[in-house]
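Holo prediction — zinc ion.
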Amino acid sequence: MSTDERGARDEAPRVSREGVGHRFLPTGTFLHIYCPHCQADLLEERRVHLFIVSARGLEGVLRLSPRFNVFDKESTVDLEPGTEIRDLRCPRCDTSIVHRDLECEWCQAPIARVHVSAVRLEFDLYLCTRVGCHWHGVSEEDRQRVSLDEPPGRSDAAPPDA
Ligand SMILES: [Zn+2]
Ligand SMILES: [Zn+2]
């Protein structure tokens, strides 16, 4: 058969792109955060905006820092440390971003998912819904591409190291 290798030449070298794809996400990285459903940009006035329903069922607005591992937050409803946020919703499409079938690796609370673009990567970032728990995660698949810096410290809400 033919030994012509023209077909193997590819102007977009996919293999090498995969090779450089793994990135580290350091504390303080500015994250562009989007709704995983409607792709709305959730950043407004330098804060990530989400609709929140507290453990007691009170509805309000949650404003988070867009910087990774920076846990500044403001809420228009009272958030008692250790309680699980009942719901988080996109302010544009009003769809919940909480996954009740997925749990925090530290405290087993349901986790929320946002879409993130940072360090030339796009991936889904998971956040714990327990007030005060600082767990973050990415999917099994995305762990091949991105590693997360350790948070400043596990909260008291989290169980101790095994
Ligand atoms: Zn949305
Ligand atoms: Zn947690």
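READOUT: The first helix runs from residue 14 to 19.
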